[in-house]
Each structure stands twice: as C-alpha cells, then as structure tokens.
C-alpha cells in the first residue's frame, strides 16, 4: 500500500493582502480586549471609556481614559516599508544592545542630531530611544535607535555625512606624518577604538594620492600664471617677450675648488649665477626694515640715497663675499625680512675684497689654529687655543 495521503505535501492557500490586513486587525482588537479585561480586575485601573481617533496623517489612535484622569494612547502607525501598503503593528519591546569602545565624533553635529529628535504627534525625545545596533564604515558610525513608544527608528551618525569623511581625514593625517596602516592599527588599539580594514585604508590612500596630485598641479598652474604676470609687469622678459620667472632652489654646500677646507652654504640659488641670503632679526619684528634702520634697531644696513644697502664693514658683508667667491656666483640677493615688510640688496661679487680681506685670514686660521688643534689638542689639556697670528712656531 502506498503512502498515506494525509502525510503528503499539501498546497496551502495564501491569504491575500486585504485578508492579511483584516486578520491582523482582528488579532489586535482581541489583544486590546484582553488588556481592558485584565485592567478591569485590578484596583484603580478600570477603563470605562475608549474611542478611536483618526488624525490628519491617517494614524489611528485609540485613547483610553482611566478613572484617575490619566489617558493612555495606543498608536497604530502605518508601516511605510511594506510593499502591500498595509499597517504593521509591532508590540515587541526593543532590546538594548551594548556598544563598547571609543568613537571619534563631531561633537556639535552630535548635539544637534540629538536635539532635533521629535516624533510628532507623540513628542518622543532621546530618552524614549533604545540603542539597537551600530553600522560602521571605518571610523564612520551610524547608531540606530528605536523609540519605545512609537517604534520609530532614528539614525544618528558621529559626523556630518556631507562633510569631508572622517576616514579620509585620518588617512591623510597618517600619511602626512610619515606613518602607515600598522601604526594606525596600533594607535587605535591603545585607544580601544575600532579601526578600518587594511583594504579600506589602501583604497582611501590611493584616492588621496590622486586628489593630492590634482590639487598640486592646479596650484602650480595658478602660481605660474601669477608669476608670469608679475614678470611681464616688471619687464623681466627675454628677446621673444617670454616671461622670465625667478626660481629659488635649495643651495646645499659649496666647497672651494682649490682650498678644499673652505665651504659655504647660502640659503638658496637663484637662476644660474646668483645666491640668496635671508636674515630675519627677531629684534625688529615690530618694525619695517626702513623703520628699524631709521631707529638704529639694526646696524648692518644703511640708507644710501633712499635705498637700504648692506654695510661693507659689517660681518654679514664678509659672509656674503665669502659665499660668492667660494660658490663662484656673480650676485647675492641679501634679504632682510620682518612681518611688517622686507628689503632686498643685490650685492655683486668682489674678488679683490676676497683676496685681501678674507682668504688670507681664513687660511691662516685653518692652518695655524684649527688644523693643529685637531692634531694636537690644547683645549683638552687646559691650555689656551692657538691664535694663529704669531709668526713664531708653537711646539707645545
């Protein structure tokens, strides 16, 4: 005998959307009746009157009046996410989820998000919400809350989604400090803060590189156009009327070709034949260079026919001529800068000044003072340093 037909697979008819709605409404009414009956058995909980109110938003409210002048409102809200358009009634109390660790937040944005919570017409606030889950994307977090009264969900983020993302800001900071993902992971672990994944870090890192390159190219283009405009205004052009833009490059260390013990390090190189030397005296930060010279706050420069020039007797002039002759450049742009302004003095190379007032003295100092001290130190023995000016040999 074959299988019993009673244990076979049966095709059950599914209820249509209107019948499902009717079935759920009937169940809800039965539950309400049970609640009313249970409340009637208890002292001071008799509910003599109840009525349904339909609001402007098509939200059906059941108001129940107690003997002690208290009113209980049971809301039947429309579930907008249902594809059938029916009302959903969820009597389940949300279970609070614990969220551990630390988070980075935009504090004012977080405060504004909390203040803007308002569930009309029930006037629910943040104290009626229960935290149910967190959705993280790297350091960006979405905190999902559910209202205990009207079951409406609220999503609060730790920053404004329309601003520069927190993930991009963190990766940019890590890159600019010369660090990487390993250091970020260690830093996050010490802070007890969840970190982004390595793949997310690398993706954001590559995107930032492209953005940085584009921003740098755009800034270079703008600066080039501005420098060309200034060069044309100052008639700094070649025979073909092409603007000549002055470029300052790092100088490094220059060593004299024949006197290898002499070297110079100017502040910068300008074109092929000039160097740059900049002075920023803190003693004149409240003045312009012209005011400082007039008030005799600086003594290295003097006013020569309305133009500030470097004094040839000043130590800075010896420094400039030494740099020019060691580096074999034609000019030195000597700049005195303050927050109030700056002045530039273009100083030509003076070979006669170098040969008569600098080279003999620095050579004697090296040969008679520095070199002997390096070979046979007198300082370590408590003796005076060799001056390098005596004509008699020193055998000590």
Automatic annotation (TrEMBL):
<dbReference type="Pfam" id="PF20700">
    <property type="entry name" value="Mutator"/>
</dbReference>
<dbReference type="InterPro" id="IPR011604">
    <property type="entry name" value="PDDEXK-like_dom_sf"/>
</dbReference>
<dbReference type="InterPro" id="IPR051703">
    <property type="entry name" value="NF-kappa-B_Signaling_Reg"/>
</dbReference>
<dbReference type="GO" id="GO:0006281">
    <property type="term" value="P:DNA repair"/>
</dbReference>
<protein>
    <submittedName>
        <fullName>YqaJ domain-containing protein</fullName>
    </submittedName>
</protein>
<feature type="domain" description="Mutator-like transposase">
    <location>
        <begin position="101"/>
        <end position="252"/>
    </location>
</feature>
<dbReference type="InterPro" id="IPR049012">
    <property type="entry name" value="Mutator_transp_dom"/>
</dbReference>
<dbReference type="InterPro" id="IPR011335">
    <property type="entry name" value="Restrct_endonuc-II-like"/>
</dbReference>
């Amino acid at each position: 005998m074959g299988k019993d037909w009673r244990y076979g697979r049966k095709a059950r008819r599914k209820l249509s959307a209107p019948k499902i709605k009717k079935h759920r409404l009937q169940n809800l009414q039965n539950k309400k009746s049970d609640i009313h009956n249970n409340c009637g058995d208890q002292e001071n909980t008799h509910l003599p009157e109840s009525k349904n109110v339909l609001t402007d938003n098509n939200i059906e409210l059941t108001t129940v009046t107690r003997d002690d002048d208290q009113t209980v409102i049971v809301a039947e809200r429309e579930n907008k996410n249902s594809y059938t358009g029916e009302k959903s009634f969820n009597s389940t109390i949300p279970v609070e989820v614990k969220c551990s660790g630390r988070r980075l937040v935009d504090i004012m944005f977080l405060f504004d998000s909390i203040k803007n919570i308002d569930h009309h017409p029930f006037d629910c606030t943040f104290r009626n919400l229960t935290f149910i889950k967190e959705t993280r994307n790297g350091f960006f977090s979405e905190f999902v809350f559910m209202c205990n009264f009207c079951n409406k969900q609220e999503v609060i983020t730790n920053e404004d989604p329309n601003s520069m993302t927190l993930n991009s800001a963190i990766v940019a900071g890590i890159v600019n400090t010369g660090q990487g993902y390993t250091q970020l992971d260690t830093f996050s672990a010490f802070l007890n803060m969840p970190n982004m994944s390595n793949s997310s870090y690398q993706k954001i890192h590559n995107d930032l590189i492209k953005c940085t390159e584009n921003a740098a190219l755009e800034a270079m283009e703008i600066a080039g156009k501005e420098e060309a405009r200034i060069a044309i205004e100052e008639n700094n052009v070649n025979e073909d009327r092409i603007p000549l833009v002055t470029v300052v490059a790092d100088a490094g260390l220059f060593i004299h070709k024949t006197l290898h013990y002499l070297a110079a390090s100017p502040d910068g190189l300008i074109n092929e034949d000039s160097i740059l030397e900049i002075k920023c005296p803190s003693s004149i930060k409240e003045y312009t260079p012209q005011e400082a010279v007039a008030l005799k706050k600086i003594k290295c420069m003097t006013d020569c026919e309305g133009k500030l020039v470097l004094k040839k007797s000043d130590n800075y002039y010896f420094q400039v001529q030494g740099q020019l002759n060691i580096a074999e450049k034609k000019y030195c742009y000597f700049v005195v800068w303050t927050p109030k302004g700056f002045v530039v003095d273009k100083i030509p190379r003076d070979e006669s000044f170098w040969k008569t007032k600098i080279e003999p003295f620095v050579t004697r100092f090296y040969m008679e003072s520095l070199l002997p001290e390096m070979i046979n130190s007198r300082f370590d023995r408590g003796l005076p340093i060799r001056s390098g000016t005596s004509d008699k040999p020193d055998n000590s």
